[in-house]
Amino acid sequence: MTSKVSWTLKFYVCPGNTMACTAALIPRLLQGFVRAICTQAALWRLTSVRHLSLTSIMKSERKTDHLERTASVVRREVVAAAKVCGVADESPSVKSLRLLVADKDFSFKAGQWIDFFIPGVSVVGGFSICSSPRLLEQDRMIELAVKYANHPPALWIHNKCTLDSEVAVRVGGEFFFDPQPADAPRNLVLIAGGVGINPLLSILRHSADLHRERANKGSGYEIGTIKLFYSAKNTSELLFKKEE
């Protein structure tokens, strides 16, 4: 008897700011959970707000550089050469990239991101991987979806990146989904807004790959129910609409 992986993919279209839209969805989806978080957050604010200062707030706002923001985050040591082997318009404001990474020492876990090094561009980009680790294992490829911005790496991707462009990548990030065969099955609820779907799509794709592997072999990773709730400011900005 063959079972199917169970997940629900729901799209929401909301006018205005995507983050505001996503925040509006959360109470409807996880009301009890959010109420508990808000209660605890209120207590934290009462005890911590006295320690905030205008100087620290301004300093936080100035930390827009990817390397500075993630300086304390663990990274892999491998910096691997990568070649662009696919470029497409995922939406009016988002380009998807497919990168060939031949270095067998390069690997990642679903949900992680990469440092993105571009020859001739001094600023290092930081982009979440949206593909499954299985695509890298089988075809030595990873996929990204990058939103247009004035940030130099994003500008390069939207205005100068072409097939066969060469870059370098390094994996980082402490948020990932990497279940082991002995683990009990987990039910996941994934909530994303706009281009923030990237790491969660990687997790969703990875879960589907693990389930197919179990169904084919009769053993291995057991995956529970997965629900992905996704919002965007309009229908044209809903990414991966054709994803099955």
Structure description:
- This protein is α+β, with helices and mostly antiparallel strands.
- The protein folds into two domains: 1-34 and 185-238, no CATH class; 75-172, Elongation Factor Tu (Ef-tu), domain 3 (Beta Barrel), CATH 2.40.30.10.
- The chain contains seven helices and nine strands; from the N terminus they run E-H-H-H-H-E-E-E-E-H-E-H-E-E-H-E.
- The strands form two sheets. Strands 5-4-7-2-3-6 form a six-stranded antiparallel β-sheet. Strands 1-9-8 form a three-stranded parallel β-sheet, sandwiched between helices.
- A hairpin with a 2-residue loop joins strand 2 and strand 3.
- It is globular, with a radius of gyration of 19 Å.
- It comes from Castor canadensis.
- This is Oxidoreductase NAD-binding domain-containing protein 1 isoform X4.
Topology, pairings included?
Elements lengths: L6 E7 L4 H12 L1 H18 L5 H9 L3 H4 L10 E12 L2 E7 L12 E5 L7 E4 L4 H7 L1 E7 L4 H8 L6 E7 L15 E6 L3 H21 L8 E7 L12
Parallel strand pairs: 1-9, 8-9
Antiparallel strand pairs: 2-3, 2-7, 3-6, 4-5, 4-7
Helix pairs in contact: 1-2
